[in-house]
């Protein structure tokens, strides 16, 4: 069997929508009647591959784990563990004891735990491509060698003839050869909520947007109505779905501001450790080379003290707790670093439908010959008022009621009440006419029960109208002039051109040219307000016209009026946009809807002023990257945009230094969501692909939830800074104390690596976790966003850590000198190194407890703060103090950690010295109050 045309070179980039069906068949080397031969199918499969989405190379799990050890702080700890272990083994051999490198083992355990923690966070598999693959149809009916057969969708090839019917998922991109009342849901691909009516006969301009290519079908979309036949024009990665998959794979995940700050912190700490180690080892060796081993031990302790081993765990737990709080505010966080990134967001790019608006079409205004009214109401709830100027005009009210009656009957939608919520089943635009009728006093249920529909002319994309026929006698509200009443509803312009008459009160009068122009002007006024406008007309028939006489029958109509419909803004979004403005965050609307509608909603919400410039997809197409960068800082509304445009807008904003949150629901939004600093998917209407590509999912699809999550992100960042200044301030004190030990002539190291790990993981870690749940400042959304390039040490945090570290070190050194002298000169048996080092160890740990209490606020004294506002801090201080005392007074722990049993007097001295740090910080707060306003002293908040 042969095809009508010889196989030709397939043109993957051909503009199939601009070619006739026959020309497409010819160029693809296919046959409309027979399809491809099996031999040709095999040849094309061998040449072009299978109809599948391909994955780009991803790191294997083992590689992700190995990569964790590239962290500069972990590398330094591994070196410390190796040297420490060697020294411990050598010491054990010298003493003829069983070698057990206790310190090295503890360090290795901490390193491995931190690596596992990083691995768990980073190894979440990217499931976006898998979700895209699941959108492909498992089976598809094709025509091959004149026979209809069912095959797996991966076996499709370019040139295959395939069949479409209601409920089928489209398996590949194709050019329609035949379409019978074919409607396809393309929302996942184009973002358009309504199903698209397809037309096989059309030949479209080359520059037609994807969403307007009515003669093409696309992989991953779904047939909602009708049937059709198409020829495959693209498979796999060449389909529109494949292009999105490629874009998704091509978007590199940028590190979040927190990750950048932690990298900066790690690098600085390692450099600090190396410098201190160099000073101690080199300086001490020059003084006395015999002290080299002792100096190395001091250096190892310093290196361990510099690294905040508990910090990664504290940050992870803090972010996890933040995600739990955000779920209560209807935001589900998928990637932990996104929690903090929200605090840095400077721009929120939001879709319009369902996020800024209610995703419910509601009638806002109506107009007949003698009647004009605004209509109130919320969603599909049939409660509302007509605000008009001629309520008592019986003729005008008759026109209104006839318009409402006609709108309710020329309708295929249903209005249902589920629990307390009213919903529309069917097309939401025509469904909006049902609650409108009830608002006008029409008993919709009774009307639908008694009105007898006998025929209809369904809506199609060419006519942009639909008509229904009722027996006149079944509707007592209308005069039974003829047996049948036909109602026509659709595009105002196309419906009006079929009218020769108009309804004036109870009379019917000829429609003049001036009156036509007046109606069109009213239509333009509605459209300028962003309303979607329907025109409604009617006529009577003595007998039902034939089904094929649509064009002839929809003539000589009587004009009733206009209905203006809008998806209104969510009530809470207006306040959320105002909060954004106060917080220095710029809201931007990016939508596939018409420009006028977008501008109307945006101006109502305060996103822009009426008349501000709005950019369309076609305008973006003509702009270079540099030209786009020049306009994005001033444009707040983007309309009729494609997936590529969304991605370009996000990239342009990022090049301008913005931290961007981007919302989306369709497959087409996935690349832009992945590119954005915070990708926000819709939980109710979003596709699986979008959710997998996102950082955050809105459980209620509400813009206000993004703002609430941003507020939570700012609170979390403030708390992260709070416990970082607590942890690192304490670490600096430890390092200086250890470094000064040999310099002041003390023998031995005051803190072993194991004791330092205890301090960093337990006495630092538990209070730090408690500080992480400190309640937020009520003014947090009245400050500008956190600058993305701001150093983690910015706004006084660095100077605070150094200042408090020095105070802690002075207290430790003073106690160390006293304890060394006390134990060597005043106690029987002379000097025992474990006694004075235990006093130093205990003093530093207890001093950190006072530091934790004082660190809750940079301005308020501890006694001024409500102790019940964060009971976790008090609980952690008490628990950590008890654990610290157990290390001294519980024999097994005392032996393992190498501590000494302190007397009551010695413990009291430790407590007295440790309270000095708390007293100092509280005095700083008092001094700050006495300084004149605007003084530069900062306490790191």
List keywords for this structure.
disordered N terminus, ten-stranded mixed beta sheet, 27 strands, alpha+beta, 941 residues, eight-stranded mixed beta sheet, 34 helices
Layout of helices and strands, plus pairs?
Blueprint: H1 21-28, H2 38-48, H3 61-67, H4 72-94, H5 102-122, H6 128-134, E1 139-144, E2 147-152, E3 161-165, E4 173-185, H7 187-190, E5 196-197, E6 216-217, E7 222-234, H8 240-250, H9 257-287, H10 292-306, H11 311-328, E8 331-333, H12 337-341, E9 347-350, E10 362-368, E11 372-375, E12 386-388, H13 394-409, E13 414-418, E14 421-425, H14 428-431, H15 433-439, H16 444-450, E15 453-460, E16 465-471, E17 484-490, H17 492-496, E18 499-504, E19 507-510, H18 513-528, E20 532-541, H19 550-553, E21 557-566, H20 571-582, E22 586-590, H21 595-605, E23 614-616, H22 617-621, H23 625-631, E24 637-639, H24 643-655, E25 660-664, H25 670-675, E26 678-682, H26 688-693, E27 696-698, H27 703-743, H28 753-763, H29 765-771, H30 797-825, H31 833-854, H32 871-889, H33 891-897, H34 904-930
Parallel strand pairs: 9-22, 9-25, 18-21, 22-24, 23-24, 25-26, 26-27
Antiparallel strand pairs: 1-2, 1-3, 3-7, 4-5, 4-6, 4-7, 8-27, 10-11, 10-21, 11-12, 13-14, 15-16, 16-17, 17-20, 18-19, 20-21
Helix pairs in contact: 4-5, 4-10, 9-10, 10-27, 10-28, 11-27, 11-29, 13-15, 20-27, 27-29, 27-30, 27-31, 29-32, 30-31, 30-34, 31-32, 31-34, 32-33
């Amino acid at each position: 069997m042969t095809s009508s045309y010889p196989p030709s070179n397939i043109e993957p980039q051909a503009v199939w929508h601009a070619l006739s069906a026959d020309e497409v068949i010819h160029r693809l080397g296919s046959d409309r009647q027979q399809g491809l031969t099996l031999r040709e199918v095999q040849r094309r499969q061998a040449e072009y591959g299978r109809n599948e989405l391909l994955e780009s190379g991803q790191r294997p799990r083992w590689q992700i784990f190995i990569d964790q050890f590239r962290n500069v702080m972990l590398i330094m700890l591994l070196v410390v563990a190796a040297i420490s272990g060697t020294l411990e083994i050598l010491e054990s051999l010298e003493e003829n004891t069983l070698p057990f490198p206790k310190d090295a083992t503890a360090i290795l355990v901490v390193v491995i735990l931190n690596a596992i923690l990083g691995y768990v966070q980073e190894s979440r598999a990217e499931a976006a491509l898998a979700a895209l693959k699941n959108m492909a149809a498992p089976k598809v009916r094709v025509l091959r060698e004149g026979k209809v057969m069912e095959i797996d969708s991966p076996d499709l090839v370019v040139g295959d003839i395939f069949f479409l019917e209601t409920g089928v998922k489209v398996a590949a991109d194709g050019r329609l050869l035949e379409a019978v009342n074919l409607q396809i849901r393309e929302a996942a691909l184009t973002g358009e909520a309504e199903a698209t009516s397809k037309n096989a006969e059309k030949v479209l301009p080359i520059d037609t947007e994807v969403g307007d290519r009515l003669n093409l079908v696309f992989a991953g979309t779904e047939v909602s109505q009708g049937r059709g036949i198409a020829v495959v024009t693209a498979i796999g990665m060449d389909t529109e779905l494949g292009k999105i998959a490629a874009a998704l794979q091509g978007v590199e995940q940028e590190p979040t501001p927190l990750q950048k700050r932690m990298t900066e912190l790690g690098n600085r700490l390692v450099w600090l450790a190396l410098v201190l180690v160099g000073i101690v080892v080199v300086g001490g060796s020059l003084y006395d080379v015999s002290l080299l081993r002792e100096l190395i031990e001091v250096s190892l302790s310093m290196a361990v003290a510099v690294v905040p081993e508990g910090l990664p765990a504290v940050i992870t737990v803090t972010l996890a707790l933040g995600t739990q709080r955000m779920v209560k505010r209807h935001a589900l966080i998928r990637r932990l670093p996104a929690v903090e990134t929200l605090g840095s967001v400077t721009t929120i790019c939001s879709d319009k439908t369902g996020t800024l608006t209610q995703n419910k079409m509601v009638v806002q205004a109506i107009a007949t010959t003698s009647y004009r009214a605004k209509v109130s109401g919320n969603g599909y709830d049939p409660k509302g008022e007509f605000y008009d100027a001629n309520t008592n005009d019986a003729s005008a009210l008759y026109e209104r009621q006839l318009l409402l009656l006609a709108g309710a009957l020329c309708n295929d939608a249903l209005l249902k009440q589920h629990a307390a919520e009213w919903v529309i089943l069917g097309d939401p635009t025509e469904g909006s006419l049902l609650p409108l009728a009830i608002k006008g006093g029409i008993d919709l249920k009774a009307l639908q029960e008694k009105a007898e529909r006998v025929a209809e002319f369904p809506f199609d994309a060419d006519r942009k109208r639909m008509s229904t026929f009722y027996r006149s006698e079944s509707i007592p509200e209308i005069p039974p002039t003829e047996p049948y009443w036909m109602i026509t509803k659709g595009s105002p312009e196309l419906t009006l051109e079929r009218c020769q008459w108009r309804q004036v009160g109870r009379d019917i009068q000829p429609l003049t040219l001036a009156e036509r122009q007046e109606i069109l002007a009213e239509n333009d006024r509605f459209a300028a307000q962003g309303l979607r406008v329907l025109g409604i007309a009617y006529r009577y028939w003595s007998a039902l016209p034939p089904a094929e006489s649509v064009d002839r029958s929809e003539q000589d109509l009587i004009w009733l009026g206009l209905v203006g419909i809008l998806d209104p803004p969510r009530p809470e979004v207006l306040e959320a946009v105002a909060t954004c403005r106060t917080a220095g965050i710029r809201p931007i609307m990016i939508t596939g809807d018409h420009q006028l509608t977008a501008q109307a909603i945006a101006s109502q919400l305060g996103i822009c002023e009426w008349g501000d410039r709005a950019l369309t997809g076609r305008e973006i197409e003509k702009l270079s990257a540099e030209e786009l960068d020049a306009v994005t800082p001033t444009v707040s509304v983007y309309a009729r945009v494609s997936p590529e445009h969304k991605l370009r807008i996000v990239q342009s904003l990022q090049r301008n230094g913005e931290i961007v949150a981007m919302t989306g629901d369709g497959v087409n939004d996935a690349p832009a969501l992945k590119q954005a600093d915070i990708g926000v998917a819709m939980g109710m209407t979003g596709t699986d692909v979008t959710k997998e590509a996102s950082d955050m999912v809105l459980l209620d699809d509400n813009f206000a939830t993004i703002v609430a999550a941003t507020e939570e992100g700012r609170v979390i960042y403030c708390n992260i800074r709070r416990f970082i200044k607590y942890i690192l301030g304490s670490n600096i004190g430890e390092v200086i104390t250890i470094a000064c030990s040999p310099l002041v002539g003390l023998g031995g190291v005051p803190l072993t690596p194991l004791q330092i790990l205890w301090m960093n993981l337990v006495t630092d870690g538990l209070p730090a976790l408690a500080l992480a749940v400190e309640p937020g400042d009520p003014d947090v959304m009245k400050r500008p966003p956190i600058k993305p390039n701001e150093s983690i040490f910015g706004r006084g945090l660095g100077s605070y850590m150094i200042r408090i570290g020095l105070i802690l070190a002075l207290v430790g050194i003073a106690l160390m000198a006293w304890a060394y002298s006390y134990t060597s000169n005043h106690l029987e048996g002379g000097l025992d190194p474990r006694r004075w080092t235990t006093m130093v160890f205990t003093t530093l740990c207890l001093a950190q407890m006072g530091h934790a209490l004082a660190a809750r606020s940079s301005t308020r004294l501890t006694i001024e703060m409500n102790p019940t506002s964060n009971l976790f801090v008090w609980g952690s201080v008490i628990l950590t103090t008890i654990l610290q005392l157990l290390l001294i007074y519980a024999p097994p722990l005392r032996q393992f950690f190498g501590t000494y049993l302190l007397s009551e007097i010695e413990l009291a001295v430790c407590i007295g010295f440790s309270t000095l740090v708390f007293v100092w910080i509280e005095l700083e707060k008092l001094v700050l109050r006495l300084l004149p306003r605007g003084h530069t002293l900062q306490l790191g908040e």
